[in-house]
Amino acid sequence: MIFSARDEFKKVVQSYAIKTKRSIKFTKTAPTRVYAKCSDDDCGWKAHLIKVDGEESFQIRQYEGRHTCVAAYRVKNLKSTWLSEKFIKKFVADPKRRVSGFRQDVIDELEIDVTKEHAYRARRLALKKLQGNPGEQFSKLWDYAEELKRSNPNSIVIVGSVEDDNGLSRFSNFYVCLDAVKKGFKAGCRPIIGVDGCHLKGPHKGILLTVVSVDANNSLYPIAWAVVTTESKDTWEWFLICLKHDLEIYRAYEYTFMSDKQKGLIQAFAEVFPDSPHRFCVRHLHGNFKSACFKGLVYKQALWRAANASTIADWKEKMLELKELNEVSWKWLDDKPANQWSKSHFNEHPKCDILLNNVCESFNSSILPAREMPILTMLEWIREWLMVRFQYNRDVASVKWKRRICPRIKRILEKHAENSVTCRPIKADDIHYQIRYTDGSQYCVNLEEHTCSCRLWELSGIPCNHAIFAIIHQRGDMEEYVSEWYTVDTYRKSYASTIKGINGPALWSETFYIPPLPPNMGRGKGRPARARRNEPDEPKVKTKKSGRGKKPTKLKRRQVTVTCTTCGYEGHNSISCGRDDPMRKKRSTSNKNEGIAEANEEHISVISYVLLFLYFYYMLLFY
């Protein structure tokens, strides 16, 4: 048997040893020969490899292939490098595969012992081979940017770097806005833009800034994303300037932005988009409301009633109810501009009445696996995810959707129709209706101008309960009164363009820019956090132990300081009182002895009184 190199022979011997469950050692390794022998001294298995004269190949000259020893459960030839090469396909399908599950699969397949350390190192080597060296990926960012612009013309890709104290070029930022996404936003998305940032959990950390809009089916529509080292006013301002240039936003007052008040974002908006309406997520507003000591379900419901009020009069009424509940809380909320958090003051132009920045939160959740990867692998993961999403949405809209409006909008219409049964229509003519509720409230509907005095139709572009009852009374089609922003044709325009694929790194054109070094972010102490911290009033998240079918109904336990009822000190209860503190134990023991002494004195006094009474009683009887 002939081998091209010594290492090839060693790998074959290693695989043979693992398969036969017997440890084999190399007794001699030289440039011209390799000797292998069974680790059991009483076993006669051996193999001698000699270099062929005049060639670079090697040949087995002596081989004893029979083992006289017994197969063992633990094989010394099993190494993490061999495991990573053998089972690398398992991590291709699932890069986040747990070490415990991987170790058990290897044990079941090989039927030999695999330690946790071997499984952990094998997983790390496999991921490193699949994703590459995290530090080296920064040096390929310029080549990746050129490849993206080559395969997707008119796309904007920006690579930024700064000089450190030693004069070296280090990574600063990376911005991506694909041409297909940009065209789709202009053709079929409403002028509502959500802005958010999330922390990256990869080897070099950083912040991922994202811009997400809403398509005709009320689904998320990512527009642009950027990787920066820190979240500040300067990074947000740079990101918004790039976005403004790419989307060609000249009339900024026509675009409405929504955010969670990230660090430095408000100041950046004041510089880049001073004329644009800006909404804030009500869920984060409620978090600040709770931080101001206005906790509880009563305050939460009062805040949401004011946020959902669609008219100025209704908003004033809800704010008055909050004032009667607590004037300090009313003052805190009244200081916040109502056009940033209440429907009653929203602009009607975007045809979107959302109060939550859920589109950005959903996008961050969708790319959660990528946020733990190195930068180049993460950027490619996001682009491929978006490429598949565009193709899938395009096919679904072309093949399955046959109605005028999108499915989610159809469900909203049906829900509004169910809620309109308590209305009483009064017809003025074929266009104008007066709708009266059983509680005495009434609204005016104009079917020609698509307006209702409750303003919900104008805000969302979808007929409200009052308008639907008027349409039904008029025997009209509800879908015909829905805004063009929600039609299937508009949805198809958003995904009409194609995000094209790119070649592998071996085929990228080499650029002559100075490759940036990784940022000096460092690594924090301990194991990096993976899950988001829940609020105290949030239900407990489902886990594998609780089962997939069980609903998360258990709230997180609040941390309360315990006070001892015996000594009055905090940090322990009466059962454990005096166990750790010698002085406290001495005090408790002395108190106990004093109590026993007092009880004995009381018993003695009672007995003496009884004896004295009996003495006088007998004296009276005999005398």
Distance between the termini: 132 Å
Overall mean confidence score, pLDDT: 86
Mind describing the biggest β-sheet? Answer: 7 strands, mixed
Strand content: 15-25%
Strand order of the largest sheet: 6-7-10-9-8-11-12
Tally of alpha and pi helices: 21
Radius of gyration: 37 Å
Number of strands: 16
Approximate shape: extended
Q: What structural class results from the helix and strand content? A: alpha+beta
**Which blocks of ≥5 consecutive residues have pLDDT under 50?**
543-549, 582-592
Helix content: 40-55%
Summary?
The protein is of the alpha+beta class.
Characterise the protein shown here.
The chain has 623 residues and is an alpha+beta fold. The chain has helices at 6-20, 80-86, 88-93, 99-110, 116-131, 134-137, 141-151, 179-188, 233-246, 265-272, 282-291, 297-308, 312-325, 327-334, 358-366, 375-399, 407-419, 456-460, 465-473, 488-494, 582-622; strands spanning 2-3, 24-29, 33-38, 46-51, 58-64, 156-163, 169-177, 192-199, 207-214, 220-228, 256-259, 278-280, 423-427, 432-437, 442-446, 451-452. The strands form three sheets. The protein has a seven-stranded mixed β-sheet, with helices on both faces. Strands 1-5-4-3-2 form a five-stranded antiparallel β-sheet, with helices on one face. Strands 13-14-15-16 form a four-stranded antiparallel β-sheet. The longest helix is centred in the C-terminal third of the chain and has 41 residues, at 582-622. The chain is extended, with a radius of gyration of 37 Å. It starts with a strand and ends with a helix.
